Structure formats: C-alpha cells, structure tokens
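Side project, low priority. Logging it here so it doesn't get lost.
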Amino acid sequence: MLQRFHRMALLVRLALNPAGLFDRINRLPWYRQVQGDWTGTLPLADGNRLLDCGCATGILSRELARTGPVVGMDRSPAMLRKAGRSGDGPTVHYVRADATGLPFADQVFDGVVASART
C-alpha cells in the first residue's frame, strides 16, 4: 500500500513540476552514462549548427553546444523556462515550437537531434 502511495505521489509531482522531475531523472548516473555513450558517437564537426528537437530542459542542448551553436526547440513552456534559466550563453538559443511545424528556413542546420526522452 505504501509503495502505491509513493507511485501516486511521484505522478502528482510530475504533473505539478514536469521540468524539475525531468532534470532529476536525467541527472541519475546510469542515465547520464547512457546519454554520454550515444552522444559521443554523433559525427559532429566543430562549428556545426544543430537543432535539438524536443530539447525539454536543455540538458542535451548544452552538451551539444560544446561543438557549435545549438537551437533547442520544445513545445512545453515549462521545460523551456527551466532550460532558459541554465545560463547557457550565446551558443544555445531556445525556441517554443512543435516538430510538426518547424519555424525555420530550409538548410539552416547542419544536423538535427531528436532523443527519445519525451
């Protein structure tokens, strides 16, 4: 019974603060290891302009920005607010948009990343 209560409490917290809970999950050591394993295999060149489609709180956007400018795009205002508070500097810019209607011209980006974390 207590375990069921804890699961319900977790769902309530997710509903009330999805961005905060999302960041906590993404900072778990095993999750960071998995993320690092696949981001290290991306064929990125210095200066590439990347789109992080579904960036959530910008964790991956910040990692990708080590090689060049990144636009993090998400449709959730709560996720983008949290991403914008990270102090990413001039290499990361966040945009509210949906992947079904990209507000960018053709050939603006050298690559697009869309992780399956949403």
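Brief comment: The longest helix spans residues 2-16.
Revisit when time allows.
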